[in-house]
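Protocol step 4 of 5: obtain the predicted structure for the target chain.
Materials: sequence only (see below). No template structures provided, no constraints applied. The aim of this step is simply to have a reference model before the mutagenesis design in step 5. Sequence pasted as it appears in the construct record:
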Amino acid sequence: MDLPFWVRLVICLSVFVCTTALFSVAAGTLNPTKINLINLTYYSYMVLTYAGSALVFLGFRGHYQMAKIHQDAVFVKGFGYVALLGLLFPLVVIVMRKFFDRLFRARPQDVYLQMPVEREDERDLAMWWMLLGIFALCLGTTALFYIRAHQIPLLPWFTGGASGTLRQVLGRTNYINPYLKTFFMLQFPAYLSFYSYVKARKTKTWRWIGLFLAYFVLAVIGKTYDFQKAPVIVYFLCFFFLEMYIGKIRLGGILAAAALAIGGIVGMYVFVFGFEGSLLDPYNGPLSRVLFSQVAGFFHTVNIFPSRFGFLRGESLPTILANLFDVGTSWRRSADVVMQLVNPFYVLRRTAGVMNSVFLAEAYANWAAPGVILGIVYVATLFAGVQSWCFGERKSAGNLTLMTVFLWVFSMAFQGGFVDFLYNANLLVFIALMLIMNFVSGLFVRHLNTPAERRVEKQYVEKRRAEKSPPRDAPTTNAASQNTAS
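Step 4 output (structure tokens):
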């Protein structure tokens, strides 16, 4: 489709304005000091998906990955799907939140932010001992991995040994059981450090402070085992999200966090990986990774399916769902297929990763245009339900931890694969772990207390909640006007 540049520019600006307006209504606010799952999705979409898509739609295709696509129709079609995502996603959230807010009796975000964090002192001792035991398992798993991999944590970052080849070897080789590695080395230390952080901030006891620091160091070691930059940076930023809901962060704090994140990325490029080009070059270096590398996988997917490779038709589904829908193959991720066709040389050398992109890529690779539309509706409904549930629950350390984990997992999956929203073992296992810990700590409290003490404790807890927690049916008109003003 041969469209003049000015027409394409008007289309890009129109989509940007409409998307921003719709997300502002869907999220309640786009204020960066009041981050929630929906407005974080807006920022992720705009920076990592829309900006690069609009640039290639306008004709800026000097990036080496974009140069491999020679048909303008692919960029027009791909941009159309990206624009549809920006418009349909917030519309679905707006509609579905009306239902979910009533179902979960969700409070307005401004009300939830002002609520104090419940300390739950009666459960502290049991939770601390359980977390200490899990930390011991995580420490042993991480130590075993590094011993068998013959690596010293963080050392290759400072000695110049963090090569792409070593990164692929560490990521692909099963030095230990993959389930132990996934849960006890990569996920639990990071997730449980959020719980320990909330407890440390509210109790200010050395017991919780020490446990948080131990989890924090172990999480950093785990997240940097294969020299990836994004996971550890996202992990750090999660604490700013937590702090928004525990205390209060002003715009200056957000800008400082952004500056530190950008400075950390630039520093790693220059001092760790020896980058010598221009940091402002849009086609090479850190700027190109943000604008073009992330969205390149999506345009390659549109280019490859179905002209070079037939639609997968559900072959990306997990085994349980694939068997349910009578699909012969499972877990065939579209990002793997795209990488095999785009970079076959590096695949043969076993040094290639995968071409992850916005979740639309996997939905399109499996079910074409209907998959894109239904995928947007499903993911938007899921996001709306999770956000309403979060604001309908008590403001406790456990719920804040789950909220942060949902924010992290969903924001990463948004730029990952559609199947991650259908089945996510990391998220399901961690939710189960939190439920088990909560149940065991409740048994611990009931076992230690006499019936009379339990009655007094129950009366105290109910009185405290009545005094400190605002009513769930608080009027939303004032809060909505405050969000609009912010």
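Step 4 remarks: The two ends are 41 Å apart (CA to CA). The first helix runs from residue 5 to 27.
Proceed to step 5.
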